[in-house]
Amino acid sequence: MAATDPQGDIAGPAPSELDRRLDSLTEELRQLRELIKRTYEDTQTRAVQLLAARRDAAYAAAYEENPLISVRVGTYAGGEMLFARALASVRAQSYGNWEAIVVCDGREEDVAAGIDALGDPRVRCLQRPRNGPYPEDRRARWQVAGAHPFNEGFAAARGAWIAPIDQDDEWEPDHLEVLLGAARRSRAELVYGVGRVRVGEDGDTYFGRWPPELGDFGFQTALYHAGLTAFLYDANAHLLDEPADWNLARRMLEAGVRFEFLERIVTTYFVESDAGGIEWWRARLRERGSFAGAGAS
After folding, report:
1. What angle do CA 224, 225, 230 make, to 5 degrees?
2. Does the predicted model carry a pTM greater than 0.85?
3. E strands within 128-207?
4. I need a surface site. Which of 77, 153, 188, 248 has the fewest CB within 10 A?
5. Residue 194 — φ and ψ, nearest 5°?
6. Residue 294 confidence (pLDDT)
7. What is the CATH number of the domain that holds 256?
8. Considering its fold, how many domains does the chain have in total?
9. Nearest CA to 248 among 182, 288, 240?
10. Residue 13 resides in a domain
């Protein structure tokens, strides 16, 4: 029988007991999925480890003047862009106390030879014996590709801070200087800025806002404390339908890592005209246009 509202109009059939039970089960399954995720990620243990790291003597030393920054570069078939964009922009930094660790995701002797040819003792190359492993599904692979070399680069770092950059990204000349300055002023454990996005031939848009969220955060715009050893990239993040970059940032946030946002462009991210995700970035360009905040250039 159809339900009737107080005015006597027909309001449609009343929810059945089966509908109510299905709604209840759906909500219980959602909560169970969240509980399984939290148990797998063990956020509480990570929070305890974070508190312990803050009590370590080396923790405070990172905020002293002129600390060593470890630049982490993961590469796979990087080619010329690794040298022309990423490493060129690293070597042009106004802040000079850095080391760069390039981790090849599978042996790439041409990359190792190119790094030797630079003749820069601050840049070294590590070779993984194989690429991956990553899932075969194309989207899942895209979400987590690079997780293994990123973690190996972190493990090999000697610096007090970690500065990630992808093989085809390009930093602003003062990227390290301004992010480190913001971290020292605020005592943040992770500082991130704005990423300029060059969308093929269409123009520039951007990502990066406060608070950090999926689609508005990327580690190539960030600097984070090397004491955050409890947090690594997860090659299984695709099972949560999350990119590994955002999955790591979300877990840091939930464990209580102190984030700070710098409203200025620090990195340029290039989306080639034939890239699979270019339509998403074109939509972002139509929605937002280019960055007009502080530090826009």
Report:
1. 100
2. yes
3. 161-166, 170-171, 190-199, 203-207
4. 77
5. -100, 140
6. 67
7. 3.90.550.10
8. 1
9. 240
10. no
